[in-house]
UniProtKB/TrEMBL annotation:
<dbReference type="Pfam" id="PF04820">
    <property type="entry name" value="Trp_halogenase"/>
</dbReference>
<dbReference type="InterPro" id="IPR050816">
    <property type="entry name" value="Flavin-dep_Halogenase_NPB"/>
</dbReference>
<dbReference type="InterPro" id="IPR033856">
    <property type="entry name" value="Trp_halogen"/>
</dbReference>
<dbReference type="InterPro" id="IPR036188">
    <property type="entry name" value="FAD/NAD-bd_sf"/>
</dbReference>
<protein>
    <submittedName>
        <fullName>Tryptophan 7-halogenase</fullName>
    </submittedName>
</protein>
<dbReference type="InterPro" id="IPR006905">
    <property type="entry name" value="Flavin_halogenase"/>
</dbReference>
Length: 499
């Protein structure tokens, strides 16, 4: 064993981020490599929201070796095929950002270029007609992929909705079984080494001192170690992502959960609806610059599909990111590292990808600068591209019915996003930069859904003879239609697998 190895990892915070980190590290380190201790405080509690995910979470679950049905049973989870956006581009409009394939690529050209050709000459108005997951979502159908050759049923992309508190509890059991030590207590301060400025230990309110080599800050918005102790700054993105508050409340469900998240635009923000097995999660994300708390609360309660199960809880946040995510011997994960609002359910994914990045650049006690710089560079890139994707939902709108939407429609946007929109408008092209989270299909679906319609399409689409083009489009649509009809209802699937 290399005596320069990390001997102890200390995780501050036991929300989703803290327990995801503890679970992943305990799995990889197999209770042999080093000690892992997690400190959390019941009196402080967790943010308690964060119920929708994206398909990449399956990779995390597989890495942990979780049984998916057991995981869903324990978290009262449901399946998610995408997000429906209502009233975003225009009032009365809706579209689905669906996961997975759209149509079928032909001659090496993405299918959506063929669809654009059809659309631009007055044909299909909705690319969702060619998207298995979008159609299945709207019809309340769900199944996992089966081995069905070329059929779209062989490749069904999905994510989950789950109860965030139960998820953290589930991961806690997992991590504790693998040797992670949990300590209850309030961290009052951290002790720094006088020369290096590295964190040596944290102090708890009852006098305990916990020493460590690597500290993972999962303390939530407060950023106890990365911000308060080490003074790493925060880049504020509210000029691009102006929502800074949310009211959240669960309500009764009807026992027939839909397999998608619904996001309905409101006058100064938007409202989420996340169906779980036992209830529906709801929240109204809004900008306090454009709406006061009382009005936002009223809107939330007016738009519930069932009786509220508690009083709404108000959360405040500043959209943005840390100037550095890893500084000295401290890595910030989750809300401590930044927050971009929950519009595309990316926060839990960002925790997951940060853990993967940390594992691939895992330090020894030298804390080599080059690895830390690389970690920060990759994390900045990832967050900046997600930020652009979220801004797209706000800026590409025709809505002019409130001050909020007038601001969003006319605000200056990052050059990287402006360039992407311009390129899409020209010939429908999206160039996905290396390791960017959202792929061409996600960008395309949101661009079209928000009303950004290209003037042209990939020229090589015209290489296909007209008769073949018409025949193939018809065939793809009919295969998707038949596949969706062959799927069981989401409710039936849950009942037979994971209720
Ligand atoms: P927290 O849950 O805040 O946990 C912080 C932990 O630190 C707690 O255990 C607390 O006790 C501990 N702590 C803090 N200070 C101290 C101290 N001094 N001493 C000891 N312990 C301390 N993400 C998604 O992926 N999908 C979603 O749908 C989604 N929806 C969201 C909606 C809203 C309105 C918000 C605000 C966030 C949403 N998120 C969503 C984000 C998601 O909730 C978080 O990314 C995730 O829960 C991780 O939170 P966390 O663990 O970083 O912080």
């Amino acid at each position: 064993m290399n005596n320069n190895n990390i001997r102890k990892v200390v995780i501050v915070g036991g929300g989703t981020a803290g327990w995801m980190a503890a679970a992943a590290l305990s799995k990889v380190m197999k209770n042999r490599f080093c000690d892992i201790e997690l400190v959390e405080s019941e009196s402080i509690g967790t943010v308690g929201v964060g119920e929708a995910t994206i398909p990449q979470i399956q990779v995390f679950n597989r890495m942990l070796g979780l049984n998916e049905d057991e995981f869903l049973r324990k978290t009262c989870g449901t399946f998610k095929l995408g997000i429906q956006f209502v009233d975003w581009g225009r009032k009365g409009d809706s579209y689905i950002h669906a996961f997975g394939e759209v149509g079928r690529d032909m001659e090496g050209i993405p299918f959506y270029h063929y669809w654009l050709k059809e659309h631009l000459r007055g044909g299909s108005q909705d690319i969702g007609e060619y998207t298995l997951t979008a159609l299945a979502a709207l019809r309340g159908r769900f199944m996992r992929s089966v081995d069905a050759g070329n059929s779209p049923l062989s490749n069904i992309a999905y994510a989950f909705h789950f109860d965030a508190g139960l998820y953290a509890q589930f991961l806690r059991e997992y991590a504790e079984q693998r040797g992670v030590v949990r300590s209850e207590g309030v961290v009052t301060k951290a002790q720094l080494h006088p020369d290096s400025g590295f964190i040596e230990s944290i102090h708890l309110d009852d006098g305990r001192i916990i020493e460590g080599d690597l500290f993972i800050d999962c303390s939530g918005f407060r950023g106890l170690l990365i911000g308060e102790t080490l003074g790493v700054g925060y880049e504020d993105w509210r000029h691009w992502l102006p929502c800074d508050s949310a009211w959240a409340v669960p309500c009764e469900g009807d026992g027939n959960p839909i397999p998608y998240t619904r996001s309905t635009a409101q006058a100064a923000g938007w409202q989420w609806r996340i169906p779980l097995q036992h209830r529906i999660g709801n929240g109204h994300v809004f900008s306090s610059r454009f709406m006061d708390d009382a009005d936002a609360r009223t809107i939330l309660l007016r738009n519930l599909d069932g009786a509220p199960l508690s009083d709404p809880k108000l959360l405040r946040f500043t959209t943005g990111k840390r100037d550095k995510f890893w500084h000295r011997n401290c890595v910030a994960l989750g809300l401590a590292s930044g927050f971009m609002e929950p519009l595309e359910s990316t926060s839990i994914h960002l925790v997951q990808s940060a853990i993967a990045r940390l594992l691939s650049l895992f330090p020894n006690r030298n804390f080599d600068r080059v690895d830390i710089d690389e970690y920060n560079r990759l994390t900045h890139f990832e967050m900046d591209r997600i930020r652009d994707f979220l801004i797209l939902h706000y800026c590409a709108t025709e809505r002019d019915d409130s001050e909020f939407w007038n601001y969003c429609r006319t605000m200056e946007i990052p050059d990287t996003l402006a360039q992407k929109i311009e390129q899409f408008r020209a010939n429908g092209r999206i160039v996905r930069a290396n390791s960017e989270l959202f792929n061409e299909l996600s960008w395309m679906e949101v661009m079209l859904g928000q009303g950004v319609i290209p003037r042209g399409y990939h020229p090589l689409v015209d290489a296909m003879p007209e008769e073949m083009f018409v025949g193939r489009m018809r065939e793809i649509k009919s295969v998707i239609e038949r596949s969706v009809e062959a799927m069981p209802s989401h409710k039936a699937f849950i009942a037979s697998h994971c209720a």
